[in-house]
Amino acid sequence: MYVCVTRRRRSVRSVNQKGDKHSYTLYLSNANQNSSKPKDHLYKILVIGDLGTGKTSIIKRYVHRFFTQHYRATIGVDFALKVLNWDDNTLIRLQLWDIAGQERYGNMTRVYYKEAVGAFIVFDVTRRTTFESVVNWKSDLDSKVQLPDGSPIPCVLLANKCDQPAEGIVSNPSKMDEYCQENGFAAWFKTSARDNINIDEAARGLVEKILECDSLINNERDKETDHFSLTKDSNGQPESRKCSC
Ligand SMILES: Nc1nc2c(ncn2[C@@H]2O[C@H](COP(=O)(O)OP(=O)(O)O)[C@@H](O)[C@H]2O)c(=O)[nH]1
Ligand SMILES: [Mg+2]
Fold this sequence. Notes:
six-stranded mixed beta sheet; three-stranded antiparallel beta sheet; 6 helices; 9 strands; binds guanosine-5'-diphosphate; binds magnesium ion; GTP binding; nucleotide-binding; P-loop_NTPase
């Protein structure tokens, strides 16, 4: 098991449906802090993709700074916590959720996706079938979790094991860019958990996207209070601005 996080509810945003079913209350990280106080965010990040693509290895590399060929397969869900001193005023805790063996059954349960604000989808550049699965993972993700305004959560695609010879379109960066745009990925990175290539960069890219969404949401809320309401329009859609991430 990784570091198991017990204080996780503090700043992960959540949407609560109140008595009036057209009104949502959104609680945000740091919502009760004024701008001069340090900001402390906790973000739930999902790491999904086919079995053997290197999800666990990426998390271990990123959080614990090591790599091994031999991991004990775990069953259930593992958590790892990565703390980032983002800037002088901002501490970010990333709670990384590893599927830990459940990916062999395909779709994940909603409980696993619940309250996530970002995701990595991982494929293995040496196995074309793992790339073919990426669209299925993306649609499973988008169908089970959204930002409060209904837009997809930021998702970064990881082409892992780039220390090995690659198969398919991953060797064609402009095709990959096109693929990411068409399929709603915020970005893609060639990574190697083994050789520690682009793992930190990919995480940084995802956090930047999440922060963009956070500030969009923050612009919408009443700055003086720690919550605000999104009123649904006549079509039943929240009237808030869509997040562009
Ligand atoms: N060459 C290479 N092997 C890797 C890399 N990442 C993971 N692996 C290996 O791929 C296998 C599956 O990795 P694992 O992290 O368990 O995949 P998961 O099932 O997606 O969690 C293991 O033998 C890892 O050592 C990488 O970047 N390069
Ligand atoms: Mg694993």
